Amino acid sequence: MTSYSSSLLKLLDERGYIHQLTDAASLDALAQREIVPGYIGFDPTASSLHVGHLVSIMLLRRMQEAGHKPVVLMGGGTGKIGDPSFKDEARKLLDDETIASNVASIKRVFERFLKFGDGPTDAVMVNNADWLDRLQYMELLHDIGEHFTINRMMAFDSVKLRLGREQSLTFLEFNYMILQAYDFAELNRRLGCKLQLGGSDQWGNIVNGIELGRRRDGVELFGLTTPLLTTADGQKMGKSLGGAVWLNEDMLPRQQYYDFWRNSHNDDVTRFLRLFTDIPMAEIDGLEGAQGEELEEGKQLLAEAATTLCRGALPLQ
Ligand SMILES: N[C@@H](Cc1ccc(O)cc1)C(=O)O
């Protein structure tokens, strides 16, 4: 474990959110000096986010808890392409109407996890359609395309799956990385955003944004990725009910959401308590190695805390 000085990196480290980090020492110093606006993007590919997105959402919550500014980016522009990173096939393209209605219904869940407003550490929400839709193709090719080489873009692990003989990467999808890089530089210009967070599959996209900021604008940007979450029995997080575990109430009833957490694998309980609830570290540490009834109580604690966070408290009977 690395030792950090800023409350932000200490918190993220002890609760298990850090997989990779660019220039940890500088980010640590920056977070001690000033309020850091940090963003995560979510593409509106369905009408609700699912448990797989929850680490990212909690990460924004932790930013705010540590006194920094969370920026939620709705991918109204990038959602028209679909991120090819680590995907073995292209997404079905969505029409504008579907994207707009997905954005509208995804948005709501963030109000449960973040405090929005005009204050310095209040969360804000932006939509990259606001700047990507307006981009002129020649301008993009000239101003942005100049900073990217095909050689380097093809070297990222995230596109390897598609460069074999079986699947291919369309030219449309190949642009995704550039647009996400553009977003980061744009959010730096607009909101002073200096940090982009995301799942480990986002590393290539994030690093490209950092590079673009440095080359074009001479600014220092940072990236942080979270570990790819699998459950103790090796499954992808949130897929264990056969379908996705949706965050929106209209897509999955509260009881089923609760049961998903209540049925967590024994070996996942403390890790999930750290990642997905606000239960204090000392209390979670006390549950380490718990068995029998104590372990069951830990699962109940997890289910109650995680459900209340996402779905709100139940009214008093
Ligand atoms: N590519 C991200 C979403 C995203 C979109 C735009 C961004 O600027 C950042 C992130 C994903 O697939 O999860």
From TrEMBL:
- Please list the GO biological process terms of this entry: tyrosyl-tRNA aminoacylation
Which terms are listed as keywords in the entry?
A: Aminoacyl-tRNA synthetase, ATP-binding, Cytoplasm, Ligase, Nucleotide-binding, Protein biosynthesis, RNA-binding
Recorded hits in CDD domains, A to Z, give:
TyrRS_core
- Annotated GO MF terms: ATP binding; RNA binding; tyrosine-tRNA ligase activity
Per the UniProt record, which EC number(s) apply here? Answer: 6.1.1.1
Cite the NCBIfam families for this sequence: tyrS
Task: Indicate the family of this protein.
Answer: Belongs to the class-I aminoacyl-tRNA synthetase family.
Q: What is this protein called?
A: Tyrosine--tRNA ligase
**Species name:** Sphingobium nicotianae
**Lineage, broadest ranks:** Bacteria, Pseudomonadati, Pseudomonadota, Alphaproteobacteria, Sphingomonadales
